[in-house]
Write a structure and sequence with these properties.
Blueprint: E1 3-12, E2 17-19, H1 20-24, H2 31-38, E3 42-44, H3 52-67, E4 76-80, H4 91-99, E5 105-109, H5 115-128, E6 134-142, H6 152-155, E7 160-170, E8 179-182, E9 190-193, E10 198-201, H7 203-224, E11 234-237, H8 242-252, E12 258-259, H9 263-266, H10 273-283, E13 292-299, E14 303-310
Parallel strand pairs: 4-5, 4-6, 11-12, 11-13
Antiparallel strand pairs: 1-7, 2-3, 6-7, 8-14, 9-10, 13-14
Length: 312
């Protein structure tokens, strides 16, 4: 085999929906204030009995079913998350246990909002190198658990959820070369730290960096796949803020692409945001099998990672 491909995707969100009007009862904010600044209308919030691995397992089970595979067909489980409560067992091991995946290698990756695209690249490398046959790649975060619900600048942003992809060997590469990196000197611009851990960020710094520095990097990810931005059928950026997504997508130059705007109904779900939005585009039939799609994550650590994939 010369490459790998995404065989199927799946996603999951908790049943509880928190609206902007609900938030207005918690902090000094309004629906208009939130929509005008971040474009978010609603977000899904997990309950105390819904841990990160449960969210991830639901999404992974849907991806497995869509691929027509059994848990025993998987030999690598990667979970991208920054909201794991325990150091061990890791979320990947817990997801594997929930699904009944036997003897798989299980690893977590904490690259915050860029976690899924880092994990997808890691799975692609493992499959192409012969280290795995089929991998489950999951992005899952419970941001509500690390949020200060009295801080209106951050609590209006977050949501919980998970998305997953099955990656397997392919005759022709359908996951393009990754372009990844970071800006360590700006790493404190997005943080989940302290005891208990709390999410905080320097919003204006992140906005300026994302809208000015990332467009040429995203275009280079397209070039590595042998494509121009105009060739893309869809662009799925980290769903951070509509005021970041729309200018960034425009500056990339993907003039013919569907731009994922799941942030409006899901909020910022960190590592879950890209697979969640991608899976919804596939489910709704907005992109077709074989279409080229740019996945591009960015955020915590001021890390970024992107690649062009073919729609399953």
């Amino acid at each position: 085999m010369n490459g790998s491909r995404i065989a199927a995707v799946g996603h999951y969100q908790p049943a509880k929906v928190l609206t902007n009007e609900d938030l207005a009862g918690l902090v000094d904010t309004t629906d208009e204030w939130i929509r005008s600044r971040v474009g978010i209308r609603t977000r899904h919030i997990a309950g105390p009995d819904e841990p990160v691995d449960e969210l991830g397992a639901h999404a992974a089970a849907k991806a497995l079913a869509a691929a027509g595979l059994a848990p025993a067909d998987i030999d690598l489980v990667l979970v991208a998350t920054s909201t794991a409560v325990d150091r061990s067992p890791n979320m990947a091991a817990r997801v594997a246990a929930r699904l009944g995946v036997p003897q798989a290698a299980t690893m977590d990756l904490n690259v915050v909002c860029a976690g899924f695209t880092h994990a997808l690249a890691t799975a692609d490398h493992a499959v192409r190198a012969g280290g795995a046959t089929r991998a489950l790649v999951v992005g899952a975060d419970k941001m509500s658990e690390v949020t200060d619900w009295s801080d209106r600048t951050t609590c209006v942003l977050v949501g919980d959820g998970a998305g997953a992809a099955v990656v397997e060997a392919a005759d022709e590469p359908a996951i393009g070369p990754v372009l990844w990196g970071s800006v360590p000197e700006m790493g404190n611009a997005v943080r989940i730290e302290g005891t208990p851990p709390r999410f905080a960020q320097e919003g204006q710094s992140v906005y300026r960096w994302a809208t000015t520095q990332l467009p040429p990097i995203a275009r280079r990810a397209c070039e590595r796949a042998g494509l121009q931005p105009a060739d893309l059928a869809a662009v799925v950026l980290h769903q951070a803020n509509l005021r970041i997504i729309e200018p960034l997508a425009e500056k990339i130059g993907a003039v013919n692409a569907v731009v994922a705007r799941d942030v409006t109904e899901s909020g910022n779900t960190s590592a879950a945001s890209i697979p969640l939005a991608f899976s919804k585009l596939v489910e709704r039939g907005e992109i077709a099998t074989g279409d080229p799609v740019l996945l591009f994550g960015f955020g915590g650590n001021l890390s970024y990672a992107g690649q062009v994939v073919r729609c399953p």
